[in-house]
Amino acid sequence: MLSQEIRNYISEHSQETYDLLVKLAQIPAPSNYEEKRVDFLTELLESWGAKGVYTDEALNVVFPYDDDGEKPLVVFMAHTDVVFPDTTPLPLHVDGDKLCCPGVGDDTANLVTMLMVVKYLLNHPMKTKDLGVIFVANSGEEGLGNLKGSRQICKTYGSRMKRFYSFDGGLKGITTDAVGSSRFKVSATTIGGHSYGKFGNPNAIAGIAEVIRDIYSLTVPEYGKTTYNVGTISGGTSVNTIAQYVEMLCEYRSSDLRSMAIMEDHFQKIFKDRNTDDVHLEVELVGSRPCGALDETARKEQTEMFEQAASILKEYTGKEPTAGAGSTDCNIPLSMNIPSLCYGFYNGQGAHTREEYVEISSLKIGYHVAFESILAYFE
Ligand SMILES: [Zn+2]
């Protein structure tokens, strides 16, 4: 239960937090190019009196609130990057209860809400319980970022991290399990030629079609949920040319470590078998996210975290949150046996589309959930 003092604080600072969301949401931050938000946030935190804020090599803005360099840690993160490549301000407008802007929910609203708690803690210093606390506005969560920010944080603090929270997504569900993935760019090159004059020469498109057929003949392993996909394909020259070059992007995913290994073997065997003297295949790994590997002890602790988060979400939304598997910043700590959860602080729609919006009325619910979730680690 939040004290009356904190409830008052939330009421008094709701407008300011909303204004910050409006400002930050418009600052462009494509994955791997988050510098503008990095500068803005560093300046902001320092203007609030935060000491020791630093940017690491992955472009994470890190604020160790309480870290003596030795004690075990809980890390709270929300990501700065968005899926949109824009380098000019992102378009924002209000439509009734909707605050519309690409990336406004994923993940700006969660980040700003986490920052509201950070500001409170700066103005009302509190002692942590048994764990030191690190706040991170992290980079590289989205596709092309390949979890760069989370990887860097786990590299820096992983050996001392006891618990990990990624505030991402909405108020309705909690991600407890990591879906791993491996993504490949596969290209086929061959001699090609005139479609009439050189008929019979090998064709790169026909070659890659066999790769695709082999992939789609696979039976997925029984452990967890496993999927595969061929997502894009391009190449060839003209209707009367035997294609010399074609490339495609494909992936497999699974929530289970054993299935990941089996799928890796399947994919590599296909790539090897279909690489012939006639059609030369080249395979490049363009993305790799590990899936979870919690042992029994860590799983137990994660269950405790889950029950706590679920009861907070239920208290303020009136609904039992769902539990599920997903590809989030938690993939990295979960693969290192660190109990982790992912959930967020708003209701909205359209993540990863230009029509994305958050329900303004849901933000206040989220503020309460954030304070409750984070202050649980303080005395
Ligand atoms: Zn996100």
Question: What is the topological layout?
Answer:
Blueprint: H1 4-25, H2 35-47, E1 54-55, E2 61-66, E3 73-79, E4 93-95, E5 98-100, H3 104-123, E6 132-138, H4 148-157, E7 161-167, E8 173-178, E9 180-189, E10 193-194, H5 204-216, E11 226-235, E12 241-242, E13 245-254, H6 257-273, E14 280-289, H7 296-317, E15 322-326, H8 331-335, E16 340-343, E17 348-349, E18 357-359, H9 360-375
Parallel strand pairs: 3-6, 3-7, 7-16, 8-15
Antiparallel strand pairs: 1-2, 2-6, 4-5, 5-18, 9-13, 9-14, 10-12, 11-13, 17-18
Helix pairs in contact: 1-3, 1-9, 3-9, 7-9
The structure holds zinc ion.
Residues 79, 106-107, 141, 168 line the site of zinc ion.
Structural class: alpha+beta
Q: Could you name the CATH topology of the largest domain? A: Aminopeptidase
The CA-CA distance between the termini, in Å, is: 13 Å
Per CATH, the superfamily of the largest domain is Zn peptidases
Q: Which architecture of the largest domain per CATH?
A: 3-Layer(aba) Sandwich
Helix amount, in percent?
25-40%
Number of helices: 9
Number of domains: 2
CATH C-level name of the largest domain: Alpha Beta
Strand content: 25-35%
Rg for CA atoms: 23 Å
The sequence of SSEs as H and E is: HHEEEEEHEHEEEEHEEEHEHEHEEEH
Trace the largest sheet across and list its strands. Answer: 1-2-6-3-7-16
How many runs of DSSP E, i.e. beta strands?
18
The description of the largest β-sheet is: 6 strands, mixed
Tell me, briefly, the overall form. elongated
| Multimerization status | single chain
